[in-house]
């Protein structure tokens, strides 16, 4: 009998292309992954991995199994949902993952509403970066993940997942002092998210399209650091409106907001989505938390 969790590893290797990428996404050593993937070979009686240089790749038989892994996961999700529907009360554990600014703004209210409406549902939360969230859902480490997407930089959502758009989060440029032209922005120091992130790629593109290259001096994935550097007069930054709202951890909006050229204004936002495994949203406990996510982001 093939082990479903090992099939999921095959699927991850097929999607990510290397042991190193699977290791980084799942937080498991490459040697442990190789050891786990050796067992399905014995179960299937076929070679599933073949060495290529210092790594391995899937054989055609392994690729077939990897494609079937999504179908198997969906069947299991639906089976779990059917069992939960037979219970007299909605109950169970829902593993929720999100990036920090979303969690600071919305997580406390989601927890409060879930406890009030479904006291037998336990929400477990893990903070992860946006690029890690889809892997958390695919790897069954999260039932729901909240991720963001920037204009013209789509995130690849695999066939075994569904996503629900929660909100559009406007972004604006904040500067250390008064600035009245695009040319003046080029003279400022900037803080951006780390190189290679979607946020950094997007920021560089909108700046170039506006006619300047930002003088990058600081990098941080934490937007509270960006806010602090703007407030201290050290850097300019793109900040989302999400960090300025909410009753628990909102920040004061900096005094100097730059008026971006109106013809480019449609680029200054990010879309925020909730992602689940296909069929997972049918579980009553997961559905309850998803509804609260819709409600709090729509308020």
TrEMBL record:
Keyword annotations of the record: Coiled coil, DNA-binding, Transcription, Transcription regulation
Domain HTH lysR-type: 2-59
Pfam families, per database record: HTH_1, LysR_substrate
Coiled-coil features, chain-numbered ranges: 62-89
Segments passing through the bilayer: none
GO molecular function, one term: transcription cis-regulatory region binding
InterPro entries linked to this entry: LysR_HTH_N, LysR_subst-bd, WH-like_DNA-bd_sf, WH_DNA-bd_sf
Family of this protein: Belongs to the LysR transcriptional regulatory family.
Record protein name field: LysR family transcriptional regulator
Source organism (scientific name): Pseudoclavibacter chungangensis
